[in-house]
Design a protein that fits this description.
The complex is a heterodimer of chains A (799) and B (220). Chain A is an alpha+beta fold and 799 residues long. Helix content of chain A is 50%, strand content 17%. Chain A is built from 26 helices and 26 strands. In chain A, a hairpin with a 2-residue loop joins strand 13 and strand 14. The chains are: A alpha+beta (799), B alpha/beta (220).
Chain lengths: 799, 220
């Protein structure tokens, strides 16, 4: 019997090729989208799964309130470690202090490479359960030891055994390799940690960290913990939340609240607003999940619609089968079986599409998703997925077709499609509602990105290159290097700064000034710069003057940005003094000599922060900013710069970034979403159009006789086209009116996250509607015009 | 007695009025009869045939088939009953276009859940008996009307029904083909199969042993 069903199904499929291509092809596309999104979601959700103790690991976070605004972050003061170790260790299995990821260069013999890594306390390899390939797990025991990732070890040592060898860090000190660990995979929070060195070394070589041991206000360190087996994250959080407040009076006014952020939340739920956890990337997991389901739904709707539209053809079969003795249940099984066959066929094609497009998708989404050929869970899920899709797509046609009464069908009085008309229309409306909403959403995402991109940055980022200069070898060499670079002809201006142009690494407070309001808790972005900073960036001075080497007093001068002036609420900022509030050992007052235009250093979606640019007295900046010679090509300039650089720092790997591309990175996340949603929208539209195309062809076929009669009575091609298109256009217009408010609501919510955002204009919606209508007209016209032009004599003979 | 209809009525409501399709039908059919139902268009011939074939329902009256009260049976049981005992032959053949001659013949047996070997034997028998072995792998569209109806009759016969219901079986055939089919019915009837046919043709009606005339849903 089953063989017989499949035979019929197969012959039906091969007989109606156009129908099959639309049906199977559309479904395959929909499934491929759902599969890819499924793999993507799986990858997102499995972030940090590499760590075996994932559900016991947490990072200690802190919320503090300034001027009524609560900020939350992982930066902690050093004394907290002692406080925890003294009184709270029964909550923790491991407690590991850590530096931030930073780039160091490692040198062995003649090989010198630059890698990111961390300084961590001894428990780290155990806490993260690093997979040790060579050497010992307890590799951070000695202060002069270093653990390398396999790729780093390979880059430095090649085939040599690295254990016990000594490498030079930043040209400063020697460390001995104690272990090689498997590289931490890309979908973890520590993917860039290519080496680990002992925390004690970090303290020993940095004076400021030594000093921080007792500074409760210096929030510059991270702390990772593994909680004890007999406790939970929540109970540890409630135990530790007031530790800082209780031990340090000075910070009480900021109400510091400590809590654990479980490793599970690091990646997907790491956004905080006013001290509350408000999600994060998880919203994209939901968003794409919903998109995937919708696209699949669209494809299933096609299947349902086309199957019921073809019911007239299948009606006779139902009648005959029933008159021969088939039960309704058997017919339902038969049609479900057919749907299953189509779905399996579509699934195979979908797999092919996924395999072929996964590379491109990975590039777009910045993933390294591999196809899970050998994963039994994947195949099991796929099977369930196939069955569900078959059921979803096949249930309506199965129930509908099997309900025909044989007498009606066999007598020929039966007009299939009449009863299902309403349901079919509803499904078409649903399809186009989704498509139109997708179009609007994508257009708005693109607009928001362009809106932020077109925002004036305040400086000239083209032709600007930055070189990291964080290792001590660079200290005190700025003047020399500036002369060398300028003389080389490749650079027309140069400056140094303590933060990159595209970020702010430091914030400061602790001043008073004339007219400062009582209780005002100031907070400024703080960047130390060389006097040529504004000149090299083409940053405009709007008031006062720039730094000048001619005034020795400029060593205690500062520049404010425009926002800072507004923030202070002072008419004439030039000449005002910022005095240190430290009574015992106050530093020199800072004098404002000028105001510069606002420049976007952080998020292009947010207002510019009030900033102070201070004269860099100690010449230990983090970056050189080079304005390239515009009369030569960038590659020529860079070749010269590299040669000069290597003359002075032969051991330091030459590394540079173009500021404009660094700035472009700020849009990467949104652009990725824009591109992905653009692709999914296109697919949704294609699938909907395939369905519409199939549907029109069946309607045209169904009405062949009517069209023939009308033409004999004098209808023109236009009349017939109009008659066939009108019905579908009506449906699409209804869809538009449903989609617009939904899209408006959702996208408006999305935009609220961006303080600097595009204003939603009515024409976006109008454009999307017109687009949808145009697509419909084109799709429908293909079939409508063909039907309208057919010779009526032929079509009337089909009776 | 094969079947018996007592005071059977069937109607539809149209514009608040009850329109009778069948009115007070009383009919007894013995095994081995060959009955022709005649009457003008719209007199209810096909409706009566469909009611007898249990494809259509009725509104009032009684219907006994092999002493089973059809009017009070559940649909599934009714389907089992006609699957077992009744074969249909249609004016427009109603073969499944997607199946070959052989597969069309096999289909009723599939619904009766016969084993593969049994099915094969019966299909081979039938092909042989109707002299269409050479056409077994052709699709209906490749056959002439007469040949298609031959397959239709063969399909109706394959499950050894007691009763064959034929709704204008020769309506779409030319006279020679029609004659062949009627001859075939005659033979079958001689072998003991009960046949009820609807026909317009006096000539075809004469093959039967009894003629029932209908007018406006009534037997006259």
């Amino acid at each position: 019997m089953i063989k017989n069903y499949f035979k019929i199904a197969w012959r039906n499929l091969t007989k109606n090729k156009a129908y099959t291509i639309i049906n199977v092809g559309g479904l395959a596309l929909g499934m491929a989208v759902a599969l890819i999104i499924g793999l993507w979601i799986q990858d997102e959700l499995s972030h940090n799964n590499y760590f075996t103790k994932k559900n016991k690991i947490a990072q200690v976070f802190q919320s503090q309130t300034f001027n009524g605004e609560t900020g939350t972050g992982p930066a902690l003061p050093r004394p907290l470690e002692k406080a925890f170790r003294d009184g709270y260790m029964d909550n923790f299995e491991h407690l590991v202090m850590s530096s931030w990821n930073n780039s160091q260069y490692l040198k062995y013999k003649e090989t010198s490479i630059s890698r990111e890594g961390n300084f961590m306390q001894r428990g780290a390899p155990e806490l993260f359960d690093l997979n040790i390939l060579k050497g010992e797990k307890d590799g951070l025991r000695e202060i002069n030891s270093i653990m390398l990732s396999a790729s780093t070890a390979n880059a430095l040592f090649g085939n040599e055994d690295p254990i016990g060898k000594s490498i030079k860090i930043n040209g400063q000190y020697d460390m001995m390799v104690t272990a090689v660990y498997e590289d931490i995979p890309y979908n973890t929070s520590f993917k860039d940690v290519k080496f680990l060195m002992p925390w004690d070394k970090y303290v020993a070589v940095n004076e400021w960290i030594k000093n921080a041991e007792t500074q409760w206000g210096n929030n510059s360190f991270q702390m990772f913990v593994q909680i004890a087996d007999n406790t939970t994250m929540e109970s540890v959080t409630s135990t530790i939340k007031d530790v800082k407040k209780n031990l340090n009076e000075d910070t009480v006014e900021f109400n510091p609240q400590l809590f654990l952020l479980p490793m599970e939340d690091w990646y997907l739920r790491n956004r905080f607003e006013n001290g509350k956890q408000v999600g994060g990337r998880i919203k994209y997991v939901w968003l794409f999940g919903i998109i995937g389901i919708f696209v699949l739904l669209l494809a299933c709707i096609n299947f349902m619609n086309l199957s019921t539209a073809r019911s007239e053809k299948r009606a006779k079969e139902v009648g005959i089968r029933k008159s021969i003795g088939s039960h309704r249940g058997q017919l339902i099984n038969q049609f479900l079986g057919e749907s299953f066959l189509v779905v399996v066929l579509a699934f195979v094609i979908a797999l092919l599409i996924v395999v072929l497009s996964l590379g491109g998708f990975n590039e777009l989404a910045r993933k390294e998703i591999a196809f899970p050929w050998t994963n039994p869970t994947f195949w099991l899920t796929s099977l369930v997925f196939i069955l569900l899709t078959a059921l979803l797509a096949g249930s309506y046609p199965a129930l509908y077709l099997s309900s025909f009464r044989p007498v009606d069908v066999l007598k020929g009085t039966f007009q299939a499609g009449k009863h299902s008309g309403l349901a079919r229309k509803a499904l078409v409306v649903l399809q186009f509602t989704v498509s139109v909403a997708f179009i609007i959403g994508t257009v708005i995402v693109m607009q928001q990105i362009n809106h932020a991109k077109n925002r004036p940055v305040g400086y000239d980022k083209e032709g600007l290159v930055q070189l990291p200069t964080m290792s001590p070898e660079f200290y005190g060499k700025y003047e020399l290097m500036r002369t060398e670079f300028l003389n080389s002809g490749a650079v027309v201006e140069m400056s140094s700064s303590s933060s990159p142009t595209t970020n702010i690494w430091s914030n400061r407070s602790g001043w008073t000034w004339e007219g400062k309001a009582e209780g005002f808790q100031e907070d400024f972005a703080w960047t130390e710069v060389s006097p040529e900073y504004a000149k090299s960036l083409n940053l405009k001075i709007v008031e006062g003057r720039d730094f000048s080497r001619e005034f020795p007093s400029d060593s205690s001068a500062i520049l404010l940005n425009e926002t800072a002036v507004k923030y202070l609420g002072i008419e004439n900022p030039v000449g005002m003094l910022f005095r240190d509030t430290d009574k015992e050992n106050p530093s020199e007052p800072l004098k404002v000599i000028g105001v510069v235009e606002d420049m976007i250093a952080q998020s292009p979606y947010e207002p510019v922060k009030q900033a102070i640019y201070a004269f860099d007295r100690y010449d230990n900046a983090s970056y050189y900013n080079l304005r390239l010679n515009p009369r030569q090509s960038a590659s020529q300039n860079l070749a010269v710069i590299e040669r000069v650089f290597k003359e002075h720092f032969p051991d330091v790997p030459f590394h540079y970034d173009f500021v404009d591309s660094e700035y472009g990175e700020k849009f990467a996340a949104e652009e990725r979403i824009g591109q992905l949603s653009g692709i999914f929208t296109a697919l949704a539209i294609i699938i909907s159009c395939l369905g519409l195309f199939g549907l029109t062809s069946f309607v045209a076929e169904q009405r062949t006789k009517e069209i023939g009669v009308r033409k004999v009575l004098g209808a023109t091609v236009f009349n017939v086209w109009n008659m066939l298109s009108k019905d579908f256009l009506k449906l699409v217009i209804i869809s538009c009116f449903i989609a617009v408010p939904i899209a408006y609501y959702v996208m408006n919510g999305w935009l609220q996250e961006y303080p600097y955002r595009v204003i939603l204009k009515w024409w976006i919606f109008a454009l999307a509607m017109i687009g949808a209508l145009l697509i419909t007209v084109v799709t429908v016209s293909f079939q409508a015009i063909r039907a309208a032009r057919a010779n009526p004599v032929k079509s009337l003979r089909t009776e | 007695m094969l079947l018996q209809l007592n005071n059977l009525f069937k109607w539809v409501n149209s514009g608040g009025q009850r329109v009778f399709l069948l009115k007070d039908i009383n009919l007894q059919v013995q095994e081995g009869e060959f009955i022709s139902i005649m009457g003008p268009s719209g007199s209810g011939k096909s409706t009566l045939l469909n009611v007898i074939g249990m494809l259509d329902t009725f509104d009032e009256g009684e219907y006994q088939f092999l002493d089973e009260p059809v009017h009070s049976l559940k649909e599934k049981y009714r389907a089992n009953l006609y699957k077992e005992y009744i074969g249909f032959v249609f004016q427009s053949y109603h073969l499944l276009d997607e199946l070959t001659v052989k597969e069309n013949l096999e289909m009723p047996l599939l619904y009766k859940k016969l084993k593969g070997s049994e099915r094969k034997a019966k299909v081979a028998d039938m092909l042989d008996r109707f002299n269409i072995v050479g056409k077994k792998d052709l699709f209906p569209a490749q056959l002439s009307g007469g040949q298609q109806q031959l397959v239709g009759v063969a399909r109706a016969l394959i499950s050894n029904p007691k009763l064959i219901l034929a709704d204008e079986p020769t309506g779409n055939l030319n006279s020679k083909q029609g004659e062949e089919i009627m001859e075939l019915f005659k033979e079958l009837n001689d072998e003991g199969v009960t046949i009820i046919q609807v026909t317009h043709s006096e000539k075809n009606a004469e093959y039967g042993s009894r003629i029932i005339n209908l007018l406006d849903g009534r037997m006259i």
